């Protein structure tokens, strides 16, 4: 019976484990390598959710026949309209090829109002100096977003 419930919920499978919306079910056959690989995947994709939501919304925006995207997003994610609008805006303003995996979504949010060239320069600088998004913000503001 539990297996049917999991199948109905859907979930992501990793060898030896099944990820569900509420946790992980281990089947007793998890190897150390699979366990470590899962942790690496979690860390890699942890910051991806806002990008996925934003890109999903922007893609839907191109298809008016699909209805009200904000209402759908609010229903899916239990988020306020402004939060969804911010996520969508950052994803639209910072195009995929300028995004840096080693930086957080908040880093990208800080530079999203800038031109593409300035975004690229500030993100590169933040990554090379190991700046947090909190440290990037005053640098970006203090130099009028010039990054020179």
Defining traits:
148 residues; 60% helix; three-stranded antiparallel beta sheet; 3 strands; 8 helices; single chain; flat; disordered N terminus; mainly alpha
| Class by alpha and beta content | mainly alpha
Q: What topology, given as strand order, has the largest sheet?
A: 1-2-3
Helix percentage: 55-70%
Instruction: Name the shape in a single word.
Output: flat
Radius of gyration of CA atoms, rounded to a whole number: 19 Å
Give the beta-strand count. 3
N to C succession of SSEs: HEEEHHHHHHH
Distance linking N and C termini? 62 Å
For the report, how would you describe the main beta sheet? 3 strands, antiparallel
Number of helices: 8
User: How much strand content do the residues show?
Assistant: 5-15%
- Roughly what is the average pLDDT, rounded to an integer? 84
The stretches of 5 or more residues where confidence is low (pLDDT under 50) are: 1-9
What does it look like?
The protein has 148 residues and is mainly alpha-helical. Among the domains are: 46-93; 100-148. Helix content is 60%, strand content 7%. It contains eight helices and three strands. The chain has helices spanning 2-9, 32-45, 48-61, 69-77, 81-93, 105-111, 116-129, 133-142; strands spanning 12-14, 17-20, 23-26. It has a three-stranded antiparallel beta sheet, with no helix packed on it. Strand 2 (17-20) and strand 3 form a beta hairpin. Helix 3 (48-61) packs across helix 5 and helix 6 (105-111) runs parallel beside helix 8. The chain is flat and about 55 Å long. It starts with a helix and ends in a 6-residue tail after the last helix.
């Amino acid at each position: 019976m539990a297996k049917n419930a999991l199948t109905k919920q859907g979930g992501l499978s990793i060898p030896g484990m099944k990820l569900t919306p509420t946790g992980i079910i281990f089947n007793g056959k998890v190897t150390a390598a699979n366990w470590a690989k899962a942790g690496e995947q979690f860390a890699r994709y942890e910051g991806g959710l806002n990008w996925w939501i934003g890109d999903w919304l922007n893609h839907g925006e191109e298809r008016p026949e699909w209805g009200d995207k904000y209402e759908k997003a609010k229903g899916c994610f239990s988020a306020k309209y402004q939060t969804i609008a911010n996520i969508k805006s950052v994803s639209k303003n910072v195009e995929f090829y300028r995004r840096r995996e080693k930086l957080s979504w908040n880093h990208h949010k800080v530079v999203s109002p800038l031109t593409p060239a300035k975004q690229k320069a500030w993100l590169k600088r933040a990554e090379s100096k190991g700046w947090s998004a909190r440290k990037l913000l005053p640098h970006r503001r203090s130099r009028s977003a010039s990054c020179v």
